[in-house]
Design goal:
Layout (H helix, E strand, L loop, with lengths): L6 H5 L17 H9 L3 E6 L37 H16 L3 E6 L9 H12 L6 E6 L6 H9 L6 E9 L3 H6 L6 H13 L3 E8 L6 H13 L4 E6 L2 E2 L3 H7 L8 H14 L5 E4 L9 E3 L6 H14 L6 H9 L1
Parallel strand pairs: 1-2, 2-3, 3-4, 4-5, 5-6, 6-8
Antiparallel strand pairs: 7-9
Helix pairs in contact: 8-10, 10-11
Bound molecules: iron/sulfur cluster.
């Protein structure tokens, strides 16, 4: 067991630290960044002015059913328009002041940040990276919005000491679920896009949602198993949240939808972490949509509580990230 998984120390008792420390029985993002940079590092989330192919053209008026008009826009950017340079300047200033931060990663976060011609993407990424001596580039996108040219472009920014990450939304590998939530792509699109990234050394983070309509525990764990096979460098899991301006909210109002509460979500998380390789960085276990946008669930544990309780559950099982893989390997 690596130094990251000080399970023995935890089993000897004492409270679990809240700050994503080295003592969690899974590989937290903060511990990964601290190992890498020797100090905390911060993401500067920006809105590059993109839209989303799942909301336009033939699909106009569509979009994923859990998505509201703000897409995945960073909460702290607010709702107003701001040019890229101003967004970066503002975020850097705030984080330096608040955290005395020194290491920053540029994160194209909102909507589909590879949705555009390659030359336009290059110009935009260059503009952003030209604003500061960033340590990483992170681009969030959809599996059906990546091709070889775009993957080449992303790879062109990588160099020793400067990683490029792509965050790919999958949510579920199950075709019926992806149709049900109007994702506009299938599982094959995801695995094809992931292969393009992996082949070029771009680090991959996969987004999953637990508690999607029609899914049970077995289906969620099957998604985790299939994703684990391609060894993503990072994973973000969150519970189903329904903003009031999303199509799914209508289903909720009609009483056609239920979704897991905190305790159930935590039990899914513990099962999922046991299935994931130890090297995969656990970047998120829950989400919190800003309160004016988030109607349900109204009551849910905050991020640090979900992390802490997930760790406690694993520990109560004498377990840790990747435990079930250890078991399979020892039987092989
Ligand atoms: S891909 Fe993202 S931005 Fe586009 S509709 Fe789905 S959740 Fe919204």
């Amino acid at each position: 067991m690596s130094a990251r998984f000080k399970l023995g120390a935890l089993l000897r008792g004492g409270p679990i630290p809240h700050n994503g420390s080295m003592d969690f029985p899974y590989r937290t993002y903060s511990s990964y960044l601290k190992e890498k940079y020797g100090r905390p590092a911060y993401r500067v989330g920006v809105d590059g002015g993109f839209s989303c192919p799942n909301r336009e053209g033939d699909r106009r008026g569509g979009g994923c059913t859990y998505c509201d008009p703000f897409g995945s826009r960073s909460a702290y950017l607010g709702e107003g328009d701001m040019d890229l340079e101003s967004q970066i300047r503002r975020s850097l200033g705030a984080m330096k002041k608040r955290y005395r931060a020194q290491v920053f990663m540029l994160y194209f976060q909102a909507y589909t940040s590879t949705y555009g011609p390659v030359e336009e993407l290059r110009a935009l990424y260059d503009r952003g990276l030209g604003c500061y001596d960033f340590s990483e580039l992170i681009v969030s996108t959809r599996p059906d919005c990546l091709n070889s040219e775009k993957a080449d472009l992303l790879a062109s920014y990588a160099r020793p000491g400067f990683d490029v990450w792509a965050e790919l939304g999958l949510q579920s590998v199950h075709g019926e679920t992806l149709s049900r939530i109007n994702r506009g792509h299938d599982g094959e699109d995801f695995f094809r896009a992931a292969a393009l990234l992996k082949k070029r050394g771009i680090k991959l983070t996969v987004h999953l949602i637990f508690g999607l309509p029609g899914e049970d525990r077995a289906m969620m764990m099957e998604t985790v198993r299939q994703v684990n096979r391609i060894r993503p460098e990072g994973i973000k899991i969150h519970n189903l949240h329904i903003p009031s301006r999303s199509p799914l909210y209508r289903e909720y109002e009609l009483g056609e939808l239920t979704f897991p509460g905190s305790e159930r979500h935590i039990s899914y998380l513990a099962d999922a972490l046991e299935l994931l390789h130890k090297e995969t960085v656990i970047m998120r276990l829950t989400t919190d949509t800003p309160s004016p946008r988030n109607s349900v669930p109204g009551v849910f544990l905050n991020k640090s509580e979900v992390s802490r309780r997930t760790a406690e559950l694993l520990l109560s099982r004498g377990s840790y990230q990747g435990k079930r893989l250890d078991k399979i390997n020892s039987m092989a």
